[in-house]
Amino acid sequence: QLQLQESGPGLVKPSETLSLTCTVSGGSISSSSYYWGWIRQPPGKGLEWIGSIYYSGSTYYNPSLKSRVTISVDTSKNQFSLKLSSVTAADTAVYYCASLTVTNLGFDYWGQGTLVTVSS
Amino acid sequence: SYELTQPPSVSVSPGQTARITCSGDALPKQYAYWYQQKPGQAPVLVIYKDSERPSGIPERFSGSSSGTTVTLTISGVQAEDEADYYCQSADSSGTLVFGGGTKLTVL
User: Fold this and answer.
1) pLDDT tens digits, B47-106
2) What is the rounded CA–CA span in Å between residue A30 and residue A32?
3) What Å distances lie between residue A50 and A8, A67, B56, CA to CA?
C-alpha cells in the first residue's frame, strides 16, 4: 500500500516560490501504474487540482495555475515536487500530494497534507 | 471554466438514505469520482468511475449516473458518515475539476 508524505516550508513570502516535496513509500514512483498529483484546499474551502505527472515526465496542469506551476519527478529519491511561483495570500492552503491509479484514475492514496501560509 | 455543481448541504437521520448530487455538462462523457473528507483529514476515495467502490469502502456507499448528473447514495447512514463529500471529474480537455463540496449532516 502506498504512503505519501508532503514536506516543505510552512511559510512563504508574497512574490516568492512555494516548493513542496512528496515522498512516496510502499511503491516505486517509476511505476507505470500511477500518476502523481498535487491538490490544494484553502482554509474552509473546497479542493482544487493543481496538476499531475506521470513517471515518464509528462505533466498536466490546471490552466488557471499553469503559468506558475512546475511539477517534477526525482526517481532516485522516489519523490515528486511542486513549485508554485509568484505566490500571493490567495495561495494559502493545505497542499496534498496524491496518487492516481491508471486503471481507475481516482486519487486513491493521499498524503496527510501540509499547510502553507503566504505572508510577509 | 468547467464547473461541477453540488448542493452545499444535505441532512439525514441515522438509518435513512442520503443522496448527494453533482451536475456538470461533461458528465455524460467523463467518469465521476467521489471523496469523503472528515475534519482535519485528507480526502478518501469512496466511488470511482461513476459507480465502482474501492476495496474497504462499505457497501452502503454507491454511485450512479444519469445524463449530466451523478449521484452518491449512502444507504443506512451512520453517524460516522458525517463529513464533506466532493465529486471530481474532468472537462473535455482533461483538466481535473472538483465540485464545491457537500456537507452531510447526520441529525
Assistant:
1) 999 999 999 999 999 999 999 999 999 999 999 999 999 999 999 888 999 999 999 999
2) 6
3) 17, 11, 27
Residues A3 and B93: their CA atoms lie apart, in Å, by 30
Cell of B74: 449512502
For residue B49, give the nearest of A49, A62, A104 by CB distance.
A104
For the stretch A26-31, contacts whose Cβ atoms lie closer than 8 Å and that sit 24 or more positions apart, written own/partner, are A26/A1, A26/A2, A27/A2, A28/A78, A29/A55, A29/A73, A29/A74, A29/A75, A29/A78, A29/A79, A29/A80, A30/A55, A30/A75, A31/A55
**Is A113 part of the contact surface with chain B (CB cutoff 8 Å)?**
yes
